[in-house]
Amino acid sequence: MTDLIQVFEYQFFRHALAAAVLTSVLAAMAGTYIVSRRIVFIGGGITHASFGGIGLAYYLGMNPFAGAAVFGILTALGIEWISQKGKIREDSAIAMLWSFGMALGIIFVFITPGYTPNLMSFLFGSILSVGRVDLQLMLAFSLVVILLFVVFFRPVLSTAFDPEFAKTKGIPVARFRYLMSVVIAISIVLSIRTVGIILVLSMFTIPQITAMLFTRNFARIIPVAALWGITGSVAGLMAAYLLDIPAAAAIIFMLTIQFLIIKGVFITLNNLRRKGARRR
């Protein structure tokens, strides 16, 4: 217990904790939209395609996360354009861009002269190295997304669930879907620093499906998902410190265990109710 209290004295841990909270809030908003629209694999395509931007940025001597952001946004817009035009199957487009981005990233990292960067921090995250500037970027973008959801909640909701009805109401569905694609892309890129390319998709889905055990209301899923995302992330950070294991993997593990426990409780309660009803 003393060790857990002492760890808060370290600035890197406080930064990691703040990053986990901000990532949970950001993922709750973008992830709820992803899950509601049933486009989880689009999130996976954006995540892995962004690695191409990381590799290219390293080759050009630029900030790797800036490269990831550019590739992520272009991939998100490309997938949305393909899904709207319908000339190529959406899943085929996602698979193509997914593999193309990863392959391009590996090639550029390989041909970059001099020191080869440690890819583990991008693939599996490096939450303990999050700095003040990273936190400021995450906070600023989180506030922008919150404002977006507050001001345009109805159009976002309509375009997610019933785009045809939204069109009859005069809502520019295509524009809002492109806008949300950009939001998803930037949210994912900012979260890569926390949990990495391979694990980030879980951050955008597991808290949401946990929240959906309690409610199916879009507006309510967001805060509930944020709550479970924060509790799982904090528990993962604590476990990582105590057990000396990778923080990102510990966070996803805790989020999964959290879901399984809650799901098990719900199943048990439902079984007890059924037995009680039969006895009556």
Total helix count? Answer: 13
Helix content: over 70%
How many strands, what sense, and barrel or not for the largest sheet? none
Q: Write down how many β-strands occur, each being a DSSP E stretch of 2 or more residues.
A: 0
- The fraction of residues assigned to DSSP E strands is under 5%
End-to-end gap: 48 Å
Describe the protein:
The chain has 280 residues and is an all-alpha fold. It has a single domain (2-279), classed as ABC transporter involved in vitamin B12 uptake, BtuC (Orthogonal Bundle), CATH 1.10.3470.10. It is built from 13 helices and no strands. It is globular and about 75 Å long.
List the helices and strands and how they pair.
Blueprint: H1 2-6, H2 11-37, H3 40-60, H4 64-85, H5 90-111, H6 120-124, H7 132-151, H8 153-161, H9 163-168, H10 173-203, H11 206-211, H12 218-243, H13 247-279
Helix pairs in contact: 2-7, 2-10, 2-12, 3-4, 3-5, 3-10, 4-5, 4-10, 8-10, 10-13, 12-13
